[in-house]
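Reply to dn_fold:

You asked what the input looked like. This is it:
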Amino acid sequence: MKNKMRKYVPSITWLCTLAYFTSYLLRMNFNVMLVKIGTDLGVANTALAVVVTGLTIFYGGGQVVSGVLGDRISPRTMITVGLSVATLCNVAIYFCHSIPSMTVVWCINGFAHSMLWSPVVKLFSIYLTDGEYGYAMIRLMWGSSFAIVFLRLFCPALLSLNISWRVIMLILAGIGLAVTLTFALYSRKIFVEPVAFKDASDGATKAQKNVPLPRMVWLPTALILVAIVAHGMLKDGVDNWLPTYLYETFGIPEENAIFSTVILAVLGMLSCSLFDFIHRRFFRNEVFCSAVIFGVTAAAAAVLFVVNSFLSSMVLSLALMTVITACMKGVNLILVATAPKRYVKSGKISTFTGVLDAAAYAGSALATYGFAAFAEGFGWNMTVLLWAIIGVAGLVLCLVAAPLWARFRREYADNPEV
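and this is what came back:
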């Protein structure tokens, strides 16, 4: 029985990774072409930020709803429906010619994508062992990073051929349709035998026993939620506006500004493996490890502020921003993807997964509009200083929460007697 389950691990991993990869294609495509879309429509960054912020708000808010539903509805069904609606939204955006209509469609798109993350985490938790969970989660993170690499190569290439951004949306919708059908048909064959409730002694399936969470967990959880908001501001805020920053600061052509940031996504793929190794090898405490990463982020942003104050180096700026986004990939892996598993005994892993991810996208929503407005009012270098301040805030929050989280794991999550 054990061998049969292991046989399905690569299939489970890569099918969910394909779905998550496609979700990123259908969700981040607008962001990647933000500069070109703004030029085409003749609107300011703050106007387009409303569209992106709408998606982020509905994606983040939808995480809570989908997290709760994920503990009651089949995860496979939720993923299939989410991909289907997202595909339709990418078709609908082709016909939108105003900011209000784009915002409505993209808000629906955001909610559709919220139906994937919590169900995927729940599927991994139910059908994979702890060791297999780590293997699968790293590859899932690769899927999101590879999607960004693909978009930042694919979109500029087609834009340089004078292919409209609207047509590119339709092409990506076609990919979405193909993957939706693949997941709906193939998932029936591989999600066949859960391991989450197997009795270690005889392999028999046992009833799930939910253990109430101790009251001590709520304070570190609240601190972690705020730290995740800070991480969301830096992860998506910096990533979304980097092409615009390069264009407005260094005068890089629009297509090249998008293309040059592909290095961020490539290193994001590598950083997931690196930070997973660092966490397992040196820390084994998700929150303290995240504190260290926030510290590195704050230092990189501070150096970038100094560099921009006295130099005008695109290479140095891009390198330091790469460090910032890579670090936030690490925090995302550790706090948003790994930490929810510590709540599994409560029977509410999907709910907690959704709440933690919602916090990340609350930060993203704040940053997507907020960074654009702040940069227009105070300039990009002051915005970089703001990034450093946010990094320090994340560092402090995690340092306060770390010992409380260690106690929670010791007395509840990792305690075999509970």
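The domain at 2-196+213-413 is CATH 1.20.1250.20 (Growth Hormone; Chain: A;).
Hope that clears it up.
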